[in-house]
Specification:
With about 400 residues, the chain is of the alpha/beta class. The chain folds into 2 domains: about 5-200, Amidase signature (AS) domain (Amidase signature (AS) enzymes, Alpha-Beta Complex); about 210-400, Amidase signature (AS) enzymes (Alpha-Beta Complex), CATH 3.90.1300.10. Helix content is about 40%, strand content about 15%. The chain contains 13 helices and 10 strands. It has helices spanning about 5-20, 60-65, 75-80, 125-130, 150-155, 190-200, 215-220, 225-240, 260-280, 290-295, 300-320, 345-365, 390-400, and strands at about 40-45, 85-90, 140-145, 160, 180-185, 210-215, 245, 325-330, 365-375, 380-385. It has a 10-stranded mixed β-sheet with strand order 2-1-3-5-4-9-10-8-6-7, sandwiched between helices. The protein is globular.
Amino acid sequence: MRVTATAHRKMGDLMAEQLGAYIKHDAVELAATAPGPLTGLSFATKDLFDIAGHTTGAGSPDWLAGHGPAAATASSVAALLAAGAHMVAKAQTDEMAFSITGQNAHYGTPVNVNAPGRIPGGSSSGSAAAVAGQLVDFALGSDTGGSVRMPAGFCGIHGIRTTQDRIPVDGVHPLAPCFDTIGWFTRSGELMRRVGRTLLPDYSDHPAATRMLVARDCFDLLSNEAAAALAPAVDRIAEHISRRDDVRLSEDGPGAWMPHFRTLQMADIWRTHGDWIRQAKPGFGPGVAERFATCATITAEAAAASSLVRDAVRRRLSDILAGNAVLCLPTAPDIAPLCRTPEAELDDFRWRSMGLTCVAGLSGCPQINLPLTTLNGCPLGLGLIAAPGNDEVLLQLAAAIAP
């Protein structure tokens, strides 16, 4: 039986409704503005990116109600439209993008099709769910503390956090500007690279990765079962790189860096949103409210001390990643937690996860998630980090390893 274009559209709308990937308070579709290398491809955009004439909701009903339509479209969205892609919707996000679970107390939790009953990860939850659920070819997200990498790992898709400040963030609702970056999701490594050619300024085909460093102190944070599941994936990556070595990032382990990341992140969040929170008194959901309250307590002295640690981390990563080396580490400490996991347990998982994600955050490095393995039938992510500006090295590897 022949299926009409209208029927296809209705089936797509039904699937989108079932997955809960898209916002419901606004319908935003944008046609491509010119033909180009992404012609014919569809994408969704996290509801942090401004679209001219539409209000950015940032996952918060209070923020949505208190702000008006954007005057201009974010340049990253405009670049994709000019490259031939068309935008089909704005995607759901955690409240104010301040979570890595994907659960929004006001708008619900997008469905993780590759790990049913488990969280999709956030805060780019809808973007990841849309790509994993094959609603779109790719999707835009943002990453501050893991908001692209975590959902990519949980949903079993590719996702990249780009080099700090490499892609302009104009028109993107901030969380903590000192760590905010733009990223995207796809189901294939080759499409990751194609999107990168459009979004990364001065994209060039860098020399291939010359050395892979396996971050042993990061793998030490995993259970034996998770580490064993990732081992074949690590070997698979090593087949594409001429040299492989083990390395320890820190004498105390990267988990010791995480409190400093959180201190700097929270101080920046309060600088960015503190005045609005005091004036609007928004009704944040569980977990989010407590985290914003903690942000208000960070002192200038604590932030200054943590800045010194960030400087040391940047020097350390710069040293070991010289010469087109890449660092291999788990994306998360385990598979996605169940949606019904109590908030206290999720908070513990969040802190353990940040012990891994803070490495790229503090160093300003790009990191990609590669969907190469599973554990107990659920995706288990593996990450690669490159030196700042070497995003292309990661994209080339993704295209070669999982095209």
